[in-house]
Predict the 3D structure of the following.
Amino acid sequence: MLKHDMNEMTRSALRALIFARDRVRAHPATALAIAGFLAATLVVFAGGRIGTVRSTIPLTDWLGLLSVQGRHSGDFLPGTLMLGAILLLLGLWIVAIRLYRSGAGTEARLWRIAGAWSVPFVVGPPMLSNDVWTYAAQGIMLRSGLDPYSVGPSALGNVPVTAAVDPSWRSVPSPYGPLATTVQHLAVSISGGSPLGAAIVFRALGVACFIAIGLLAADLAGPRRIQALSLTVLNPLLLLHVVSGAHLEGVMCALLLGALVAAHQRRWLLAVVLACAAGAVKAPAFLAVPVIIAMHSEGYRGWLAWRIAARDIALAVLSVVGMTVIVHNGWGWVQALNTPTLGHTPLAPASLIGDLYDPVVRAASFDDLAAGGRITTMLAAVCIVIYLTLTGRRRALARTIGYGLLAVGLLGPVVYPWYLLWAVVCLAPTARAGHRDWIVLISAVACLLNPPGFTSTLSIVFSVAALAIGFVVMAMAQRARGRNAAVLQIAEPVDDAVPPAAVDPPQSPAKPQGSQTSRVSVGG
C-alpha cells in the first residue's frame, strides 16, 4: 500500500511538472514575470533583514521590511539569500534577452515583465546604499539655510536624518552638481521638510527616470526597440540602483539619453543643453558635451565649422552658468568634486595599481600608494577620452560617449556599481550581438560586486570570483559565436541586421566650403 501511494505521488508530481513546463512554454512572458517578481521579492526581503550600512540608524522599519539594528558583517544567511536571489534575477534577465533578442514579442509584454520585476523594489526599502538619505539630508540643509557645498550633513546636529547617513559622508560637502542640489531641495520642499517623505519623492523620481530610460532607449534603438528594452528596463542593475537605491544616476542617465535622441534627430542645440543638464547632476556626464559639439561640426569645413562649434560652446557655457546661479554658492560643487575620492573600493583599478606600487616604493604610506594609483588611472582615463573625442567620426555618437563613460567609471579613484550605469544606458539601445554580451557581463558583475551580509574578506573573494567567472564565460561565448557565425547569421537575421540608425558615419571625402554631410549616426 505504501509503495502504491509513493508511486501515485511520484506520478502526480511528474504530471504537475509536465503541466508547469507546458504552461511556461505556452506563456513564457507570464512565467518570466512571476519568477522575476518572486526573485525580486526575495532580494528585498533578504536585503531588509541585512539592514543598512553599519553605524547608521534607519528612520523607519519600512513597513517591517527593514531591520533597524544596522548591518552586521556576519549576516551570512540573509546575505546568501540575497545573493542567490540576485543571481536568479540575472539568470531570468539573460533568458528574457535570449527570448526576445530577435524582436519577437511586443513592447507591451516587456513593459509588463518590467513592471512585475520592479514592484518589490518600488515598495521595499532602499538597498545596497544609503545615498538616498544623504540626498534628503542635503536638501534639508538647503531648507535650513546651510550650504551643502561647504559642510556635511553633520552640520544639522543630532537629528534622525544625520544618523541615517552613511558615516563616510556625514562630514563631507556635496559633490553633486547644481541641478542635483535643486532636485534635493525640491524633494524636501514637496515632502514638507520630512526626510522620509523626501526619500519617497526620490523613489518616485527614480521610477520616473527608469521609465524614461526605457522609452528613450527604445526611441534611439530604431528597429531594435525590443532588445533595447530588454537591456534596460529588465536590467537588474537599473532595478537595484535606479528604482530601489534611487540614485541620482537615474536622472543623469535619462538626461544623457535625451541628449542622444535629440542629436539623432539633429536637434543639436537641445542635445547640448541636455548634456549640460546631465553634467549639472553628476560631473562625469560633461564628457558628452565636447563629443556632441565635435559631432555637430563634423559635417562642415572652414570658418563655418568653427562658427558652429563656437556657438555650441557658448550655449554650453550659458547653460551651465544658468543652472549654477539658481543655487546659492552654485560653484561650490567644483571644489567638492574630490568628495567621492574619500572612499575606498579595494577592487577599483586605481586601488589595485596602488597596491602594485607597494613593492617598488616600500617607504610610501597607504595614502601615497592610493594617490599614485589614482593618478595613473585618471591619466589613462583622460587619454582614452581624448582619443575617443578626436576619433569620434569613426564610430557612432552613443558608442563614443558610452566608451568614454565606461573608462571614467572604471578608472576613477573609486568604483561603485551604479557608476557603470553611465556606460550601460548609452551602449545598450542599439548594441549588436557582441556588444550585447559585454553589456550583460558589465551589468552582472556590477550587481555582484561587494555583496552585503558577508565579511569584507569574503566579499572581496566572491567579487574576484565573479569577475573571473564572468570573463571566462564571456570568452567561451565569444569563441562559440565565432565558430558558429554562419549558423547565427541564418538563425538570427533580424538580430544581426544593421538598422540605418546604427550604421557608423561614412568616411566621406573632403567637401566644398560650407557643405554638409548626410545624417550623422548617433544610435549605435
